[in-house]
Amino acid sequence: MHISAKADYATRALLELACEPGRPLTCEAIASSQEIPFRFLKSVVGELRKAGLVRSQRGCEGGYWLGKPAEQITLLDIVRAVDGEVITLRGEPLAGLDYPGPAVRLPGVWREVEERAAAVLAGLTLASLLPAGTLQQQPRIGAA
Known about the structure:
- This protein is 46% helix and 8% strand.
- It is mainly α and 144 residues long.
- A hairpin with a 2-residue loop joins strand 3 (88-89) and strand 4.
């Protein structure tokens, strides 16, 4: 099993944002706080923005916020946003995997592992991962 650096960094960045929902955070601040390489984080945050998990504002008062409440963002959402698939075999999705002969049942095992991993990730939200008492009320999206 392999958890990508992108998935790890994306989750850590979103947890930082979940702790400060009332104000934007810059990539520099998140990278520094979580000890993540800035350039790599910048590209990961771009993927999170495309997926709607973060929103951004330019300018001196700008930065990033969660795209939706921490209670609604699952680890599965994050992994799929940055990696696409939960588990791949040599970089390929498991859906079309087929083996001959004595290994004919093995692809089913790999798909079951993926299903169970996805179920675990879907059951965990950002809010559930935060230390008790750190989640603040998030302002309504679009509210001033």
